[in-house]
Amino acid sequence: MKDKILVLGSNGQIGTELVTALRAGYGSNNVIACDIRRPDYEIKNAGPFEFVNVLDKDILKAIFEKYQPTQVYLLAALLSATGEQNPKLAWDLNMNGLLNVLDLALAYKTAKVYWPSSIAVFGPNSPKEQTPQYCTMDPNTIYGISKLAGERWCEYYHQKYGLDVRSIRYPGLISWKAAPGGGTTDYAVHIFHEALKKGSYASFLSAETELPMMYMDDAIRGTIELMDAPAEQLSIRSSYNFAGVSFTPEVLASEIRKHIPDFKLSYAEHDPRQQIADSWPKSIDDSYAQKEWGWKPEFDLAKMTTDMLTNLKK
Ligand code: SER
């Protein structure tokens, strides 16, 4: 059967690059980009686009009816920092958007569904170093709470109804093509832009705040590898731990200084995102992803930094 793929939330930091990668693999016309905002030039002109609000069940149903998708990627969400400014909206979008998609995927017999979770599912009482797949999880942001609840729903739809839903707990994602959407890890993208533009950056996270991160190329490849893996190899239908590199603002700044020797890093005080970062893991144990679908990152800190600076300079 020929695949038809819906990407809901196609204009965000992940969607922008995922749509391009999926179109390269499945053909432009078989990947339908969907978002509430007009897409950027590249995606719109490289294939079909539809205006879709995942909270609008009628429009969403019409899109399923029109395209009869074999795969759906649901990326529309409010992230950790933005979510704290509007908790009820974050809950509504992150939860009801997911439930709408899971129900339609069942009704239209969609073969595979992808939904991203996050390191935000962990909380202050989760182990901080090499955080395991299974441990105490007490997220204290609405984003994290919605992601943890969403993971439970995904597993539930798999166990009760046999829906083939797959998920990854993304770390902070670093990329140059599209801006990050209001997360706690966004400093690690902003720093590159400011280093090139101004030669300095004021980080909203403190010098020693270590967080799990990943370069977008790895994240996109890992996502597609998970979706391509044989179903019987996958024991986890909540969401897989997924690791790339971990670093602090200070360590990232030293790496940037290898390219921009005069780069200056300072620190902004009293940013609410610090508290969120302090509740998250420093590093992630992703041995299930390694064992079950062969996950292995390609970008370390040095390779990522070189690639970011080279592309942003263009
Ligand atoms: N990058 C996300 C955030 O900071 C984590 O999932 O909200």
From TrEMBL:
Mind listing the GO molecular function terms for this protein? L-threonine 3-dehydrogenase activity
Family from the record: Belongs to the NAD(P)-dependent epimerase/dehydratase family.
Xref: InterPro entries: Epimerase_deHydtase, NAD(P)-bd_dom_sf, NAD(P)_epim/dehydratase
Can you name this protein? Answer: NAD-dependent epimerase/dehydratase family protein
Start and end residues of each NAD-dependent epimerase/dehydratase domain? 5-233
One BP term from GO:
L-threonine catabolic process
